[in-house]
Amino acid sequence: MRLQGKRAVVTGGRQGIGRGIVDAFLAEGAEVFTCGRGAEPNGLSTGCHWDSLDVSDAKAVERYAHALEGVDILVNNAGVQVEKTVADSTDADWDLVMGVNARGVFNCCRAFIPLMPKGASIINIGSISGNVADPSMALYNASKAFVHGLTRSIAVDHGPDIRCNAICPGWIETGMLDAGFDLAKDPAKAKQDALTRHAVKRFGKPADIAAMALWLASDDAAFATGQLFTIDGGMTAASPLNPGPF
Questions:
Q1: Which residues are paired to 35 by β-bridges?
Q2: Range of 139's domain?
Q3: Which pLDDT tens digit goes with each residue over 125-163?
Q4: Is 64 among the catalytic positions?
Q5: pLDDT tens, 70-110?
Q6: How far is 180 from 39, CA to CA, in rounded Å?
């Protein structure tokens, strides 16, 4: 029960990585609040508090933070993805992706930081796409690079009272992963090729990211701040040489 007595907010907890983090935190004794656009999803774990919230709306986020009166843990997980190049991206695409992935993280940090107690932890969900560019995802790549830079700034400006780190997931089994492979001429072949590039020979699961988030939220990570933790099954550790399926 590493989070016993702590209160946590996890944005974008409807599904995927966010839902995995919600469940992990609840299992370790935290009181968990989560939010997302739209109505409460089915099957949300017992004991989790749901609120409808658009994190790109600064005033709504401010009201939400003050209503909760501060939390010990903030996980900025809410995110969206548009599969386009810069030339193909529209103003609406910019507003959507940067609004949620960049402005949304900024809004939440700005609203919650003044209300967080000493020893609090902020965990931002970045991406390997903020370090190496996925093709046809220009805005998504840029938004995650912003998250990485903001993470370091918060750690420097608000330590030692607040720790701030980012988790950079690789290819995790969510709807976003499938959307990425759908861009390929042969999605099945592209997926098999990707698997061979993973040292663990599988894609990640939300629980893999939740395990890192749990550690960063706990007192076990008291000396970890301002860091980007890549969790990608060894994919970005490999050279471009593809040995083919084993």
A1: 11, 51
A2: 7-174+205-229
A3: 999 999 999 889 999 999 999 999 999 999 999 999 999
A4: no
A5: 999 999 999 999 999 999 999 999 999 999 999 999 999 99
A6: 27
Provide the number of structural domains found in the chain: 1
Indicate whether 186 belongs to any domain: no
Q: Is residue 185 part of a domain?
A: no
Residue 220 contacts residue 2 (beta carbons within 8 Å): yes
H or E segment at 143?
Answer: helix 138-158
Contact 40, 50 (CB under 8 A): yes
Please check whether residue 235 lies inside any domain of the structure: no
Identify the active-site residue in 33, 64, 140, 171. Answer: 140
| Domain assignment present for 75 | yes
On whether the CB atoms of residues 148 and 164 are closer than 8 A, the answer is no
Does residue 245 register a pLDDT over 60? no
Average pLDDT of the residues of the chain? 94
Please state, in angstroms and as integers, the Cα–Cα distance from residue 123 to each residue in 87, 105, 181, 194, following that order: 32, 10, 27, 27
Q: How far apart are CA 236 and CA 197, in angstroms?
A: 8
For residue 246, pLDDT over 90 is answered with no
Q: Domain with 132 in it: what CATH number?
A: 3.40.50.720
Rounded (to 5) percent helix, strand, coil in the chain: 45, 15, 40
For residue 54, how many C-alpha atoms fall within 13 Å in the half-sphere facing its CB? Answer: 10
246 in Cβ contact with 199 (< 8 Å): no
